[in-house]
Automatic annotation (TrEMBL), chains A, B:
The keyword Chaperone does not apply. PANTHER family: HTH-TYPE TRANSCRIPTIONAL REGULATOR GALS, LACI-RELATED TRANSCRIPTIONAL REPRESSOR. One of its GO terms (molecular function) is transcription cis-regulatory region binding. Keywords: DNA-binding, Transcription, Transcription regulation. This is LacI family transcriptional regulator.
DNA sequence: TTGTACGCGTTATCAC
DNA sequence: GTGATAACGCGTACAA
């Protein structure tokens, strides 16, 4: 078997490999890093020594000098309600997080790039993060920004950290981002609801101060207005199933005649379905429901949700590609790519 | 404002701080690392210099010498069906992954420990991973092992890498792990189904060769046998909603009289619900359904699923704690902690 | 083409 | 208590 070092021993270093191969450390390094200009003879010798010693390069030491880590960070920027943050649990359990990670990994994996997870809640944590990043902790970052007014995007650009946001920043700052045309998605929902003849159509929105959410609200309102619905009942939740259920209840008591509702994400839509069932309303016969995201929850719901498809995996993958090329070419101009949502018709509307 | 270095410049180093403070690098280091034995005067001076220069320690350089990274890796060990792995997409979208990450972060975050994500599919990748780990790439690892016979656990113990598995290893190897008493969970399901008077009870299992899955099968069989059901119809899926639907169909055609079914996870149970509805069976009146996991899908389903609660977040959190103390004290003996599942009664059974 | 020597930013071991 | 100085493991000008 290959002579890997016994456990607990000092691990073989490049120096050891060089000694075994009978060359200088520089030559060994060249061979291992695939630099041309090396005698095929020695090339052979070095690789043999690598095998015999069980050498594996120390990434830390390498990064220290190359200033490249082969790692990108996925940073979730949150507005720390409290130290014992109940929100984070919800966030990770939400299909959203997993879809993003899956999309990112699908491209990062191919490039042998690792993903490091960073959660920052306070401004102090944000400052420290940017400091670490400038120190080369990671080659770049993908940012998931939750708070309405997050200072992080600006800090990142000022620190000249290669970064790509998933979802546009609330404040206008010159940073790369990948986003969904949320307003168009909302318009699709409006089309569907009006098109099937609904007369009194309401909406359940997410927090009104986050961009993705406000875009869906304004997009829906605008499109509905264009169709003669100048005003629509609105209730807002926080993207959780429970909040969707509560919002649906309040909407129903305020407007018993409601026969259509657009819900800003699938999780809340599932909650709305529960409330409707409890109120004795059939879906879609009595009340039509359109969700948003096309997450796994949409398909699991009963009836399966008609929903606006949010190609999160693709968007995450694209953001990873964007970041990677941005890392390779620091002079790349900031860019953004906007995805068009589509409507997935199922049974709820 | 604090004089942080202009972007694009060389970042301030410990050397710079020392110069500004008028002390030696060694002293600056001591102050920053909170070592006692330093003149309060200088202490003050150094911190002032830190603020003025905007210094932030370089973690890489620090790790190189301390051999501590402040990072643990979450490694997902998979059996790479193909390079274009369709499974991974499913895996990340599954609530399972998010719940684990959430649980881990809840404790790692407090200790200021970062989480790095690692996916390994081939043995070569596994070898490289262990090499990097031994080189101090991370202080330890949390392992999510998917394949039936995964060489990784053994490789980790042989490499003396601090590690904790979530879910016991298939082959017996001396490694720390946190697991659920899957057999007991299955017994709870059997109790419920038999208890409510079901006569012909089937099961939809996961892949038969992974431990968590086989434990649920054997636990269910044993408990059913003890209640006079010496044989039960079995169909197996792969933990996805679609596979659950298919399995339910096949079960139904083979055993039209089925009036109860235990499904090895909630996602498949949701699929089963769909199949039952399509077959015109009412739940739970015609067929009672018990799921497993108590994931968000259970609550979203209709009817809401009676299911075996799998406290994944708690288990992940515990595994993180275990790993942290194992890292602190290398001599700690290998240990395992088994969680007891409970039954959550909702409407499906 | 190969080897020498220096630097990456820290911490740790010594003398003082 | 404090300050030189040697590691840590590696890449790479520069000289040969």
């Amino acid at each position: 078997m290959s002579g890997r070092a016994a456990a607990g021993q000092r691990l073989p270093t490049l120096e050891d490999v060089a000694r075994v191969a009978g060359v200088s450390r520089a030559t060994a390094s060249r061979v291992i890093n695939g630099i041309r200009n090396v005698d095929p003879q020695l090339h052979e010798l070095v690789w043999e020594a690598v095998g015999r010693t069980g050498y594996v390069p120390n990434r830390l030491a390498r990064s220290l000098v190359t200033r490249r880590t082969g790692t990108v960070a996925l940073v979730v920027s949150d507005s720390e309600t409290h130290d014992d943050d109940p929100f984070m649990g919800r966030f990770f359990a939400d299909p959203y997080f997993g879809r993003v990670v899956g999309g990112l990994m699908s491209v990062l994996r191919r490039s042998g790039v690792q993903l490091a997870l960073q959660i920052v809640g306070t401004d102090e944590q944000r400052t420290r993060l940017v400091g670490d990043l400038r120190n080369g902790q990671a080659d770049g970052v993908i940012v998931l920004s939750l708070p309405a007014h997050d200072p992080l995007p600006r800090m990142l650009t000022e620190g000249e950290v290669p970064a790509v946001m998933i979802g546009r920043p609330a404040d206008t700052v010159p940073i790369n981002y990948v986003d969904l045309a949320n307003d168009i998605g909302a318009a699709l929902a409006a089309d569907r609801l009006v098109g099937r003849g609904c007369q009194l159509i309401g909406m359940i929105s997410g927090p009104v101060d986050v961009p993705a959410s406000s875009d869906r609200i304004s997009g829906f309102r605008r499109s509905m207005a264009r169709r003669g619905h100048g005003w629509i009942p609105l209730a807002s939740g926080n993207f959780t199933q429970a909040s969707g259920e509560a919002a649906m209840c309040s909407l129903l008591t305020g407007h018993p005649g409601l026969d259509g509702v657009f819900v800003a994400n699938d999780l809340m839509a599932v909650g709305a379905l529960t409330a409707l069932r409890a109120a004795g309303r059939r879906v879609p016969q009595d009340v039509a429901v359109v969700g948003f995201d096309d997450s796994s929850a949409a398909l699991a719901a009963s009836p399966p949700l008609t929903t606006v498809r949010h190609p999160l995996e693709d968007m995450a993958a694209e953001s990873a590609r964007l970041l990677l090329s941005r890392i390779d070419d620091a002079s790349m101009r900031v860019s953004s790519v906007i995805y068009e949502p589509t409507l997935v018709i199922r049974e709820s509307a």
